[in-house]
């Protein structure tokens, strides 16, 4: 908008009232003091103040900033805190105890002490693009603020040194791009801006971000995979930037210790994209962003360009698109699958060449359609394809074609996890975030899609923000959903 509007009660249904002349342009936040004074921050125009009498004045504490957060002490209408919106770390906020006439600056090294309860957080992330500051409504000397990384709780705000501590459990803000649940550890998670983490215990914060070797520049993890017969051997893809992507920023890496440490491929074929590892050998198949497929059998020292695939399989620019078109057969050696447009293609010669083995309906997949390909972890030659808006399909060697799974009209995410002990013979549990039997939610099936049980009501953040899924191989019924801007959710089916 272009300012602050006010109007009588008859206008509150959506009709604009008269414009508050003199208010900040592009307003971001407002706070109303107990004496009727209105404080407003603006992306342009600084910090404004409107008295109960109706006059506006500019109180901007410092020049050169966009302003967003604003709060007023509930016990003292003259005490105001305003926060800057700069997209860097350790930005200042300002406090006034005289209704904005004078301001005192605070930041991490000036008038602040910070205690972190998240072990992996770098200590320079305090006050990063602060969105909201809010006084606790009763005490008046405590407050909360939120920024890029999470939520902080502040105390002693009526003293010279403000004491802040992270308040993160249940408030995660990470943009999760990739999840992987190999047999040797509960979970690995990959994120925008925050690299990746290993989760030995998903009820605890990870101890650290994973370490990587130079020379590639790393920021966003886009995919993981592991060797089924030795899950300590893993591969991973990264980008450094968001948009625009820059050639040379990012690439691929491998790990021999289950993801604790990583080494960059000596030869890079691109950046980001999706990756798969052979079930029985150190063979890596990689589809970088905007490119075709490549295979390496020597930890990425050299690569062979696969034949039979399109020149571009994934977007060259969109790291946010939830699309995973590649997988290895989890039981059969040297076998990979790729969803190339509507064609499901297979390689049985270690990714050297691919040929079509099935096809989805014409028009069901576009460049921006969310699709995922996974293989049954317990059975060879059993591949599943999800289409956001197009349902769920299964290919087996016995059928020789992609067959639609009944009653699943939309499948955004899919994953396989530990089998149920109540089912004989052992059958991997299948999970889907989608629409089953005309209901939205997260579902599981113990019989490969013949019947489904609902785990989630489909109305919350998982439906709106879910972007990646993995399921646990230690515990039946445990599934993980990575959300964009909401971290990782853990679901547990009822026995």
What distinguishing features does this structure have?
mainly beta, four-stranded antiparallel β-sheet, 495 residues, single chain
Question: What do these coordinates show?
Answer:
- This protein has 495 residues and is mainly beta.
- It is 1% helix and 40% strand.
- The chain is built from 1 helix and 41 strands.
- A 5-stranded mixed sheet has the order 11-15-14-13-12, with no helix packed on it. Strands 3-4-5-6 form a 4-stranded antiparallel sheet, with no helix packed on it. The chain has a 4-stranded antiparallel sheet with strand order 7-8-9-10, with no helix packed on it.
- A hairpin with a 5-residue loop joins strand 5 and strand 6.
- It is elongated and about 80 Å long.
- Residues 10-17 have low confidence and may be disordered.
């Amino acid at each position: 908008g272009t300012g602050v509007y006010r109007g009588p009660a008859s206008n509150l249904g959506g009709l604009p009232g008269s414009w508050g002349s003199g208010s900040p342009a592009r307003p971001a936040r407002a706070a109303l003091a107990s004496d009727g004074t209105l404080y407003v921050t603006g992306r342009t125009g600084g910090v404004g103040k409107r008295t109960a009498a109706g006059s506006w004045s500019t109180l901007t504490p410092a020049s050169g900033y966009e302003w967003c957060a604003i709060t007023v002490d509930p016990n003292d209408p003259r005490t105001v805190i305003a926060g800057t919106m700069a997209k860097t770390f350790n930005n200042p906020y300002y406090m006034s105890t005289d209704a904005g006439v004078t301001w005192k600056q605070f930041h991490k090294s000036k008038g602040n002490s910070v205690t972190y309860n998240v072990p992996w957080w770098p200590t320079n992330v305090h006050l990063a693009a602060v969105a909201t500051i809010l006084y606790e409504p009763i005490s008046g000397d405590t407050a909360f603020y939120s920024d890029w990384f999470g939520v902080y709780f502040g105390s002693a705000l009526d003293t010279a040194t403000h004491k802040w501590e992270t308040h993160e459990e249940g408030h995660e803000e990470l943009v999760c791009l990739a999840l992987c649940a190999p047999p040797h550890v509960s979970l690995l998670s990959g994120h925008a801006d925050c690299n990746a983490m290993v989760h030995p215990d998903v009820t605890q914060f990870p101890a650290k971000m994973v370490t990587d070797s130079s020379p590639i520049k790393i920021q966003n993890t886009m995919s993981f995979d592991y060797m089924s017969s030795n899950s300590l051997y893993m591969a991973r893809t990264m980008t450094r930037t968001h948009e625009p992507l820059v050639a040379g920023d990012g690439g691929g890496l491998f790990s021999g210790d289950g993801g604790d440490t990583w080494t960059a491929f000596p030869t890079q074929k691109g950046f980001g994209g999706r990756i798969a590892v052979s079930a029985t050998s150190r063979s890596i198949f990689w589809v970088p962003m905007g490119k075709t497929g490549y295979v390496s059998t020597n930890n990425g020292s050299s690569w062979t360009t696969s034949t039979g695939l399109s020149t571009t399989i994934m977007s060259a620019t969109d790291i946010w698109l939830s699309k995973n078109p590649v997988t290895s057969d989890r039981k059969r050696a040297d076998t990979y699958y790729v969803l190339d447009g509507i064609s499901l293609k297979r390689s049985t010669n270690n990714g050297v060449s691919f040929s079509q083995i099935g096809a989805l309906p014409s028009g069901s997949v576009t460049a921006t359609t969310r699709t995922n390909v996974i293989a049954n972890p317990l059975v060879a030659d059993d591949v599943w394809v999800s289409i956001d808006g197009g349902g769920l399909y299964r290919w087996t060697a016995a059928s020789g074609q992609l067959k639609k799974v009944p009653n699943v009209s939309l499948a955004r995410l899919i994953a396989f996890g530990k089998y149920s002990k109540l089912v004989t013979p052992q059958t991997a549990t299948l999970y889907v975030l989608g629409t089953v039997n005309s209901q939205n939610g997260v579902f599981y099936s113990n019989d490969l899609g013949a019947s489904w049980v609902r785990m989630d009501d489909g109305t919350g953040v998982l439906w709106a923000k879910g972007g990646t899924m993995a399921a646990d191989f230690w515990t039946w019924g445990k599934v993980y959903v990575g959300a964009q801007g909401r971290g990782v959710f853990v679901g547990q089916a009822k026995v």
